[in-house]
């Protein structure tokens, strides 16, 4: 196992391995690709003469020019099979379960060293996971994906991520969801400066969001309720009253305390809230109570109509 864990943003483990290249055995290395300023898509697969693996290899091979000539990116597949096994597999016709002569290099990792260094070896089975690494021309890992053994990779998605990485490196812009080559990016740096950014280490979410939420509330809604109103409505609703709710009942006018004022506050109301936050809490809770009041009134009316019909 490599001393350094393979992660995005860290150097990829170097390798020099024997591979099947266009039907011949050849030594290839990561440094040879990076010295030529190539990106590398390094694709590990479980084993030769299987079912899912040939579909991936043939798909990538059929579109190899899109990687090599349009993006200066090499593609190589790796398994723990011997080089002779891979050569035989590539040389056999597709009707016999072979690859029929693909052009992507098939790297042999029969001593399992490379799979261990990339942290993708399944030790008990002696095969590699279905993992894919995108490595930039500086030899830095920029993307890692690992699929279930029975789920193949997508050529289109690999190209999309590769395009996004090269776009980011060239223009310094981020790529939003489902970004595709030719689309605009997002200037993260300038947007952060314009909006002031969000420093989560110095500001809580509430402190950052409160001014933005405050603009969504009208002056009327902010002043439409007091804590005494809420205490009265909350107390009567908990008591199960079907009577029409008034803003303040006579008991509270005489100084009696409701269940809310005795410490059983609604989870949406803070007894210590004040200012903007308090007004927003009150307005939101008032709306909830008005909805509940309307529901009780409808229920009372329906019950009255039901009794009348029964008589």
From TrEMBL:
Residues 243-277 have a biased composition (Polar residues). Transmembrane segments: none annotated. The keyword Endoplasmic reticulum does not apply. Residues 238-277 are annotated as: Disordered. It holds the Pfam family AhpC-TSA. InterPro entries: AhpC/TSA (IPR000866), Peroxiredoxin (IPR050217), Thioredoxin-like_sf (IPR036249), Thioredoxin_domain (IPR013766). The keyword ATP-binding does not apply. GO terms for biological process: cell redox homeostasis; cellular response to stress; hydrogen peroxide catabolic process; response to oxidative stress. GO terms for cellular component: cytosol. One of its GO terms (molecular function) is thioredoxin peroxidase activity. Residues 6-167 form the Thioredoxin domain. Keywords: Antioxidant, Oxidoreductase, Peroxidase, Redox-active center. This is CTPxI. It comes from Extremus antarcticus. The lineage of its organism: Eukaryota, Fungi, Dikarya, Ascomycota, Pezizomycotina.
């Amino acid at each position: 196992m490599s001393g350094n864990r393979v992660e995005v943003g860290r150097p990829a483990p170097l390798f020099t391995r024997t591979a099947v290249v266009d039907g011949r055995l050849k030594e290839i290395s990561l440094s040879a690709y990076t010295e030529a300023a190539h990106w590398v898509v390094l694709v590990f697969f479980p084993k030769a003469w299987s079912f899912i693996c040939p579909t991936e290899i043939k798909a990538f091979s059929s579109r190899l020019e899109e990687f090599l000539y349009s993006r200066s990116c090499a593609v190589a597949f790796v398994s723990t099979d011997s080089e002779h096994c891979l050569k035989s597999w590539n040389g056999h016709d597709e009707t016999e379960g072979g690859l029929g002569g693909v052009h992507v290099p098939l790297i042999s990792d029969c001593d399992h060293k490379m799979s261990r260094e990339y942290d993708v070896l399944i030790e008990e089975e002696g095969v590699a996971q279905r993992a894919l690494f995108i490595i930039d021309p500086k030899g830095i890992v920029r993307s890692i994906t690992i699929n279930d053994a029975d789920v193949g990779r997508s050529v289109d998605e690999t190209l999309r991520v590769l395009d996004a990485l090269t776009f980011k490196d060239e223009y310094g812009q981020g790529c939003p969801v489902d970004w595709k080559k030719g689309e605009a990016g997002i200037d993260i740096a300038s947007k952060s400066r314009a909006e002031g950014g969000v420093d989560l280490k110095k500001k809580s979410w509430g402190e950052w969001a409160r001014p933005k939420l405050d603009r969504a509330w009208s002056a009327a809604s902010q002043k439409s309720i007091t804590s005494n109103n809420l205490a009265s409505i909350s107390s009567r609703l908990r008591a199960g009253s079907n009577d029409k709710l008034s803003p303040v009942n006579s008991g509270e006018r005489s100084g009696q305390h409701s269940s809310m004022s005795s410490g059983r506050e609604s989870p949406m109301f803070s007894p210590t809230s004040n200012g903007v936050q308090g007004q927003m809490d009150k307005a939101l809770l008032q709306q909830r109570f008005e909805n509940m009041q309307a529901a009780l009134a409808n229920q009372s009316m329906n019950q009255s109509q039901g009794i009348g019909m029964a008589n």
